[in-house]
Amino acid sequence: MSEQPVIEMRGVRKSFGRTPVLQGLDLSVPPGQTFAFLGRNGAGKTTTIRLLLGLIRPTSGRAEIFGLDCQRQAVEAHRRLAYVAGEANLWPSLTGGETLHLLGRVQGRVHEAYRDELIGRFDFDPSKKVRAYSKGNRQKLILIAALMTRPDLLVLDEPTNGLDPLMEQAFRHSIHEARERGQTVFLSSHILSEVEALCDRVGILRDGVLVDMGTLAEMRHLSALTVEATFDGSVPDLSGVPGVSSVETEGRVVRCQVRGTVEPLLKVLAASGVHELLSREPSLEELFLAHYGTGAELKDKPPRAS
Amino acid sequence: MQADALTRAPVRAGRWPGAVVAGLTARKAARSGALWGYVFAIFVASSALGYAATYKTQTERDHLAATFGSNAAIDALIGPAHQIQTVAGFTAWRSLGVLSIVGAVWGLLAGTRLLRGEEDAGRWEALLAGQTTRRAAAGQALVGLAAGAATLWTLTAIVTAAVGRSSKVEINVGAALFFALALAASAVMFLAVGALASQLAGTRRQAAAYGGAALGLCFAVRLVADSRAGFGWLRWATPLGWVEQLRPVASPQPLALLPIAGLTAVLVVLTISLAGTRDLGASVLPEPTSAGARTWLLSGPIGLAVRLARPTVAGWAAAIGAFGLVIGFIAKAASNAITSSSSAERAISRLGASGTGAVVFLGVTFLIVALLVALIATGQVVAARAEEASGQLDNLLVRLVPRWSWLTARLVVTTAALVIGGLIAGACAWLGGASEHSGLPFWTLVGAGCNVVAPAVLVLGIGALTLGVWPRAASITTYGVLAWSFLVDLIGGIIGLNHWVLDTSVFHQIAAAPAVPPNWTTDGILVAVGIATAAVGVIAFTRRDLQGD
Q1: Closest residue of B to A96, CA-based?
Q2: Residue A29, domain extent
Q3: Does a structural domain hold residue A127?
Q4: What is the ipTM of this complex?
Q5: A184 and A276 together in one domain
Q6: Which residue in A5, A123, A194, B302 has its CB near the most CB atoms, within 10 A?
Q7: Is A56 part of the contact surface with chain B (CB cutoff 8 Å)?
Q8: Alpha-carbon torsion, ordered B64, B68, B70, B74, to 10 deg
Q9: Which of the residue ranges A1-5, B245-249, B285-289, B497-501 would you say has the lowest mean pLDDT?
Q10: Is A89 close to B288, i.e. CB distance below 8 A?
Q11: How many domains does chain A have?
């Protein structure tokens, strides 16, 4: 049974009134994987997560967690997961400690030693009332509340919203620990460096359908390599070279994208007196932007040597 | 300054960049003031025209005046009647009695919403980073509130003057303007109360609670003053009494405007000076920011519901207890002023009570107790909706709390609070009466207290149903049912409304205990209907999407 996916969605559609948000989403996350869910604002990421948690109902299709129906068997499914929202909405009159106690009790399971370790790691003061916490401190509170139960599945919806860089490190450390223990992580994030650092597999959501999914290596392999060449003398015309696209010339510097083998390009470059050559794989940001058809912002960035 | 550059951008009106707060507040206040101005106008017009149509002859009108002119219980609820044998006098009496309370509630809510509510929402932060100071901003917001009050007054005045021109009504323009002023006076004072409470409290809800406590106190003092129990001088001790002392139409006393203007001025000055001494987002009264963990209740939805409802319910219980003490205390003296004429009896019996004596006075005034207890129910419906809309509920539902269990826990805890409210009302009314040797039996009054729980359970059931079916309308529907029921029952008894209309009031269903014994069968039916409606609501809630605002 270890092969049973932790998250399984089949043809899930969701509309709010007449506005379709998810349009036939298929998704499968196997156990132990750290899966990143990317997409622009309004692409349907939070809707997907709220569907998985049973907070909203699919218009059609089926969503399961650990093989349990997300609607009808929600409580059973929740026994093995924990969720962190992008915005911590808590009861302002309770203190941090009271909130952790309550959330632990209604989850039914808390690793007390790990909770105390997390409180220390996130430098969190549980004695204050929630209304007195800053946004970042509230976010720490729900992170601790989720991590302290050591669930089989962590569902994280932009979990580092409002955290400072030190706390972001503490968060990454905690997610690495979770991975080592074999916990499955489903992470929706806008911080692509975070996703690159943490995740095995990435899914890109656009207009309610998954437009790309795979490991970062797979996705990079399928996409173009960026090459920047500086010439001593005249600049050759690279636009006719097989596999080359998006050629831009700035003085004696040429930037282009290469798909497939680089051999034809190398031959042309070698014959033209190339002085300096830089190439790199696309960053996740470029992959992401490529899916949204706006790579223009990246042109100004010089590629780093690879 | 950099802050200027940042915040001037979103402000469109470049002409008076310093008056943005006044403009924004005025726009919102005027919109709300206009809405309530229409309500006031319709109320005044329907009172005048309804009276003229119902009581056509002078004999009928004299008879009405004899009835209500001698009824201490009605006086205590609505205020003393002056010249109600005329259309103008009746209109002034009825409108002033009801609309001064409505206006005060509006003022309170509008004042706290537009000051503390806007600050809570973070909208003042952007404005205050611009070309204004906290003190100036508070002053401007008050100017904005004044615009709202002016709108309310203008609409009421125009309609009153127009209706007054009718030969059946006969209120001249000057009297109409003064009448409208009297109607708007409590709104003006309580707008200022709301503004001050917004400085004292740290959240809009807390500010509204402070203001509500002030209004409750003013109403209780006014009720004692008008109960003919020998406390008439107390009318000068409460803002609502000052409004009565204006006596528009019948025998205008503009002098009573002095304390009204004085109080408003003091509140305005206090508001502005306190706004300058505190931080943005902070309150003047200290609020503890940390506390020791008290976790014994926090183990599940029931415990959490108790913990969250406790401060509010304690406040209501205190208000209900105080009100019970007051009416118990004055019941004997007030009942001496209720004549035993058959017409008086008939008038009271419209409200369900009959006979004479302290129990009759209590039978009528327990309508207010019923309202207060039902307000606990509406408050908890609103709180439950807010817990869902804010996302706080998500924290429970993504764990092992099933939806039905959360909502049921909230409803059960609220029902317990309703029962506590009813028992406290009965016990305190007995205590107040006992101190005056009025000889009211304990169990009769406790029974009367339990009696008012039934309509509150029905209101709660209706609230749960709307939470399940149409959550965004839950607050307005529940408060709407309550306000409609209360007004129909209060007014219906006086102007003899059709029984079909009266039957739409949840309060009209119950017996006017302690004047008559409670009808436990009816109460049982109300409770059963309430529970059934709530059950449908819970089922609907488990089958819908959670919804934000």
Answers
A1: B293
A2: 7-215
A3: yes
A4: 0.84
A5: no
A6: A194
A7: yes
A8: 170
A9: A1-5
A10: no
A11: 2
